[in-house]
Amino acid sequence: MVGLIGISAIETVNGRPTSKITINILDESSGKPTPVRVRLTQNGRPVKQIPLEAAAVMYGLWDHEDGYAFQPDSSFYVAGRFHMSLPPGMYQLSLSKGNEYLKQQHTLVVTAGKPVQRTYRLKRWIDMAAKGWYSTDGHIHLRRSPRENPYIMTWLKAEDVHAGVLLRMGDFWETYFPQYAYGQKGVYQEGNYLLTSGQEDPRTSELGHVFALGAADRVRRRDRYYFFDEIFDKVHELGGLTGYAHQAETFHGYRGLTLDGLRGKVDAFELLQFCVDGNPLHTEHYYHFLDLGFPLTATAGSDFPWCGQDHGHGPPERTAQIGNARFYAYVGNATSRKPFSYSAWRSAIQAGHTFVSSGPTLYLRVNDALPGDVVDVKRGSAVSITVHAYGNTQQVPLDTLELVSHGQVIGRVTAHEAGQSANHLSLSLSLPSVKKGQWIAARCSAGPGQAAHTTPVYVTVEGGGFYNPATASRYLDLSEQYLREIEGTFEGAHPNIEEQAWKYQEGLKSRIAETRRIIAELRQKLR
């Protein structure tokens, strides 16, 4: 949507004539003011002036005060209204509110004269919460006290993220981005939006970065830092979930995932994020563990203020942004009478009822079961699969929708086929005679950097597993290779003080030996 507006007033700042503009932004469906992301530029350059109404929270890499009211791309957040005095000229105004609302672009022509007030209405192209699916950014780094809660909530609402997980970050030196409380005590909620605390700790370059969501307290053991399993066990005791961040790709996360995942310590996998490269979806290590028969719930998060679609080297609109990678959890719609709450949200993630997205939305059903569910059938039974992907031609133009089982595409449609479109792709498939267990997931792609992927539905036959016998041997060999990589970190000189796995080698070697015993058992079982 593009508008051309003349705005005028006779005012001066430092002797220069200015005009006062007042902008109101409403939600089209409710007619009420709504928090939004605003970017104001002139000749392609950000206007350096910030309105008094901007919601300002200190943020920055490594918990430094690098940012405040302006976001990394020089945009700012307001709760539905702002005013400024600007010198005469032509300005470009961008308004956005996350993935589910249509963005707006307006041209403002500022001249000397009478003040003018303008109102814009933001329109949704889809309402996922109304369908029972609530969005989460599971990886945000902001320090928080109760005083900051309302301001951070404005940021969250301006990106239409219903749950923001603020992770206290750590390494073996210290911690960053502190949180004042955890579990229910750390929840701040306004309507259908909430803030909650978690942790990204431990973090090492040899074994990867791990996260915990939903625990009643933080867990940290500085003197046993490389024994991730001890952290995971305590997090589980505290009612939380554990997972590997960054698609287990950076910081050699696949090594730690092998060590902990094969021993049943890991619940979730951060499947979608812009930290590795401009492609947000990396499935290699995810499919590795699914094919070995280990369920992993798909999550996603922005890793704000670090990761953007360009890793900080591209155009401003592609830099780090809350909600640029998110996951949806099925809490239930109005007819199920389940209110959106911290406990309902956490239960939905524990059940694996999720899909990840940087734009498109997905609905997968296998025999009417949701992602994360186990569907147990009798040998030779038929299994019915339906999947729908939704996008928007203007903003999230769908391209391809695929059904994946055991890493192989078993169904595929594109927007160019009859009956399909850039707004809606659908696929129905029947497996007529299921003889072995399998995991089944859906994934789709849309415009540049736009993708989605579900947690699988796990189909089992008469109480069996869902592993893939065709790939098990190869993946077990790869797991053994990753264990050898860990052992390789113990050898030679150790000049890099950021790598200290060698100090913990005795304990790590016992864990590696335990994992090798499991690999040997799996070789016999998964034939």
For CATH, the homologous superfamily of the largest domain is named as Metal-dependent hydrolases
Distance between the termini: 58 Å
Count of helical stretches: 7
Quote the average pLDDT.
93
Radius of gyration: 24 Å
What's the CATH topology label of the largest domain?
TIM Barrel
Domain count: the total is 4
Low-confidence runs: 1-10, 311-317
Shape: globular
What structural class do helix, strand and pairing data support? Answer: alpha+beta
Based on the coordinates given, report the CATH architecture of the largest domain.
Alpha-Beta Barrel
Helix content: 10-25%
CATH class of the largest domain: Alpha Beta
**What is the strand tally?**
30
Percent range for β-strand residues? 35-45%
Biggest β-sheet description: 17 strands, mixed
